[in-house]
Design a protein that fits this description.
alpha/beta; Aldehyde Dehydrogenase, Chain A, domain 1; Aldehyde Dehydrogenase, Chain A, domain 2; 7-stranded mixed beta sheet; 6-stranded mixed beta sheet; 16 helices; binds nicotinamide-adenine-dinucleotide
Length: 481
């Protein structure tokens, strides 16, 4: 299905236009390796124009809307997203290489973000603060101004929904820089916002290379807040660039998220979560569970059952809608296979397979389950960002917590156990932005604050927390005697 808009344009002030340089970049289908279109190669000139349009929107029609009116626009946008489910899912599947069913789930999540933040826009309130006699003190939550949003290729729709959705709800004007590897649905989102009736300049989208458009956005003096999702290395650059303008950043970076399986766990319930949380989107998920920690008494049993599940997994083209698709690019495949080369033959416990009909030009990697590694092995420490999970045994709760907390990351963790006391102890002790008890991921959870500690980043998106992050708190103190 061909996109209904020109993919090689940028979206500024409510209009589609070529980028200043007129240059374009190829967009590749990871399932085949073939080119599926061209996107604009935006540069600093385009980012300047986008920030200017956003500023004008804030002092124009967009800035004059009430919170309820902004919420209504977001809700309408959510309805339009749902009405375009088939087209958006096909676009995301083709562009990112994720199985169609997973791409459809991302469309629904984007619609949910629009609905959630649409409904929340007029429910963010300040406080009145008891103070000295003769004073009335209250707080106001105000828009920050122009917000910059830099998103990666793995979940474009979900990440746009959680960051741009919340920023718009709070009345900011947004400049979005999608990833050069996959940005069709970001462009579609802009066009749907136009159809929904967002005033010109409320949302501007400039595709381009990270080192060009991305760097220009994160260092732009007209931006009041940068929301970045991506790798740790780029996160550092973005934070340093924003620091020069003394501007806050939200960093959503990677992880090496553990699931802790105790001997008293309900394994039948746990098993699908243990495997799928590692293989969803071919492991290219920031919150992928890439470490499975198992109490030694049941280590062999869990290993056998996960191995059986792995042997049944098939990587195939996104539109074939099998267990997993290809990786995003030849470069990502090289990184993942480079990691796998570090594992000894005996450490590869089980492997899935690549479908025999998968095109040779696609970037497929069969899923691999690893065991027999020390917790400080590179494969158990570093984010691989591919369909690879590592099994690690532990003897008691103390050791489980120490291994779980023993990486520089801290994004998500889960505990599988029927012991309520242990659940509570570990929920407090595990270093992570989200802890799940007898589940993993809670199905995405638009409503649930999300973000990391350590190298997984800082700041929170999703839920109401994002609305606080995308607003500025003002205290008003009136002395009236
Ligand atoms: P990346 O950091 O290379 O790119 C992410 C975005 O940053 C892209 O839009 C890119 O164009 C842009 N960018 C690149 N260089 C830039 C620069 N110098 N200045 C400003 N922007 C720049 O990451 P990636 O390879 O696209 O994604 C993989 C990584 O992202 C993984 O480590 C993964 O864990 C992480 N990730 C985290 C989350 C999360 O929510 N925590 C979600 C998705 C991905």
């Amino acid at each position: 299905m061909k996109p209904w808009f020109d993919t090689d344009k940028i979206f500024i002030a409510g209009r589609w236009m070529p980028c200043a340089s007129n240059a374009t970049l190829p967009l590749q289908d990871p399932s085949t390796g073939g080119e599926i279109g061209r996107i604009a190669r935006g540069t600093s000139e385009d980012i300047d124009a986008a920030v200017e349009a956003a500023r004008a929107a804030l002092s124009g029609d967009w800035g004059r809307l009430t919170a309820a009116e902004r919420g209504r626009l977001l809700s309408r946008l959510g309805t339009l997203v749902l009405e375009h489910t088939d087209a958006l899912a096909e676009m995301e599947a083709t562009d990112v290489g994720k199985p169609l069913t997973q791409a459809r789930a991302d469309v629904i999540a984007l619609a949910r973000y629009c609905e959630f933040y649409g409904g929340a826009a007029d429910k963010v309130m300040g406080e009145t603060i008891p103070y000295l006699d003769g004073y009335t003190v209250y707080t106001l939550r105000e828009p920050i101004g122009v917000t910059g949003h830099i998103v990666p290729w793995n979940y474009p729709m979900q990440i746009i929904g959680r960051s741009v959705g919340a920023a718009l709800a709070m009345g900011n004007a947004c400049v979005l820089k999608p990833a050069e590897e996959a940005c069709l649905t970001a462009l579609a989102f802009a066009d749907l916002a136009r159809m929904a009736g967002f005033p010109p300049g409320a949302l501007n989208v400039v595709p381009g290379l990270g080192a060009e458009a991305g760097a220009a956005l994160s260092s732009h003096p007209g931006i009041g807040h940068v929301s970045f999702t991506g790798s740790v290395g780029t996160g550092r650059l973005v934070q340093a660039a924003a620091a020069r303008n003394v501007v806050p950043v939200t960093l959503e970076l990677g992880g090496k998220s553990p699931q802790l399986v105790f001997a008293d766990a309900d394994l039948d319930a746990a098993l699908p979560f243990l495997v799928n949380a590692g293989l969803q989107n071919a492991g290219q998920t920031c919150s992928a569970s890439s470490r499975i920690l198992v109490e030694r008494r049941r280590f062999e049993e869990v290993t056998d059952r996960m191995a059986a599940a792995y042997r049944a997994k098939v990587a195939a083209p996104a539109m074939a809608d099998r267990d997993l698709g290809p990786l995003i690019s030849a470069r990502q495949k090289e990184i993942v296979t480079g990691y796998l080369d570090l594992a000894g033959q005996g450490q590869r416990v089980a492997e899935g397979r690549i479908d025999e009909d998968a095109p040779g030009g696609g970037h497929y990697v069969a899923p691999v389950l690893l065991a027999g590694l020390a917790p400080d092995d590179r494969l158990a420490q570093e984010e691989i960002f591919g369909p690879v999970q590592v099994l690690l045994p532990f003897d008691d709760e103390e050791e489980a917590a120490s291994i779980a907390n023993g990486t520089p990351y801290g994004l998500v963790a889960s505990v599988w156990s029927c012991d309520g006391g242990r659940q509570m102890r570990l929920a407090k002790r595990l270093r992570a932005g989200q802890v799940f008890l007898n589940n993993y991921g809670a199905g995405g959870g638009v409503e649930l604050p999300f973000g990391g500690t350590g190298h997984s980043g800082h700041g929170r998106e999703k839920g109401f927390e994002a609305l606080y992050g995308f607003s500025s708190l003002k205290t008003v103190a009136a002395r009236h005697g």
